[in-house]
Design goal:
Elements (H helix, E strand, L loop, with lengths): L1 E4 L5 H14 L8 H8 L4 E7 L3 E12 L2 E11 L8 H13 L6 E4 L6 H9 L17
Parallel strand pairs: 4-5
Antiparallel strand pairs: 1-2, 2-3, 3-4
Length: 142
């Protein structure tokens, strides 16, 4: 298995996102090629991919500089249903942690819904600590 940072967007990557995003969030729109290109060309967003013969997983890291320090958020972690339980999520997350380490980042944050039991166990095994906080969302209508 190969884990790498996307540096350009191919049709294979676009097709992978069209398959993976609905598995993560069925109501979310599938990003277009131009949207994915904008993300990887951003200074603060990185997309990591797991690939065997095909792309089987993805993870996004967003870097934030705020008054309390430089922080990173891991977002949109999804492994294809056919590849779950094979360590793909672990390898993606470990790769992201290693990539962020040494870049002046004081914290890496992520959220995971409680029903994603395996994912929550994985994050704790990798050293993430559950925080006692409330997460709020305001959905804006466009």
């Amino acid at each position: 298995m190969k884990i790498y940072k996307a540096t350009h967007i191919t049709d294979d990557i676009v097709n992978a996102f069209s398959k993976l995003i609905p598995q993560l969030s069925p109501d979310s729109p599938i990003p277009s090629k131009s949207e994915l290109e904008a993300l990887i060309n951003s200074d603060n967003t990185m997309i990591f991919l797991a690939e065997e013969e095909d792309i089987i997983g993805t993870l996004t890291v967003v870097l934030n500089r705020i008054p309390t320090g430089n922080k990173a958020w891991i977002e949109d972690v999804v492994v294809d249903e056919s590849a779950r339980g094979k360590g793909v999520g672990k390898k993606l997350t470990a790769f992201a942690i290693a990539f962020v380490s040494g870049k002046g980042i004081s914290q890496i944050n992520l959220t995971s819904t409680p029903e994603r039991v395996a994912a929550n166990q994985l994050y704790q095994k990798l050293g993430f600590e559950k925080r006692e906080t409330n997460v709020y969302r305001l959905t804006l209508k466009e």
